[in-house]
TrEMBL record:
The keyword Cytoplasm does not apply. Subunit of the V1 complex of vacuolar(H+)-ATPase (V-ATPase), a multisubunit enzyme composed of a peripheral complex (V1) that hydrolyzes ATP and a membrane integral complex (V0) that translocates protons. V-ATPase is responsible for acidifying and maintaining the pH of intracellular compartments and in some cell types, is targeted to the plasma membrane, where it is responsible for acidifying the extracellular environment. Belongs to the V-ATPase G subunit family. The keyword Ion transport applies. V-ATPase is a heteromultimeric enzyme made up of two complexes: the ATP-hydrolytic V1 complex and the proton translocation V0 complex. This is V-type proton ATPase subunit G. InterPro entries: V-ATPase_G.
């Protein structure tokens, strides 16, 4: 009976070693699958970045001309408005200066309305 128990224990130890090997292989397999998944995901991300970058460049090129024409139009409008403002300034500056001088020079001395006359 002792020999049978010894053999059973030996069989259990061998089974335990085999189970440990299976568990270790499963862990290695899982780690390898995670590494593979990460590298695959990085590849997909890189491809997605490339496609979006190409789309953006195409969009930018298609709208670049529009931006330049709009900027040129705005510059022309600004220049026209500046000319109008300068013309108005040149036409009215003498009148404004004259009005200011008239107000400063032509002073009519009057009593303040709150001052009461004393008799």
């Amino acid at each position: 009976m002792a020999a049978q128990q010894s053999q059973s224990i030996q069989t259990l130890l061998e089974a335990e070693k085999e189970a440990a090997k299976v568990v270790q292989q499963a862990r290695q397999y899982r780690v390898q699958r995670l590494k593979d998944a990460r590298s695959e995901a990085e590849k997909e991300i890189e491809e997605y970045k490339k496609t979006k970058e190409q789309e953006f460049k195409a969009f930018e090129q298609s709208h670049a001309g529009t931006t330049q024409t709009v900027q040129a139009r705005i510059d022309k409008e600004t220049e026209v408005k500046q000319k109008e403002i300068r013309a108005a300034y040149e036409g009215n500056k003498d009148k404004v200066v004259q009005k200011l001088l008239d107000r400063v020079i032509l002073v009519k001395p009057e009593l303040h309305r709150n001052l009461k006359k004393q008799q």
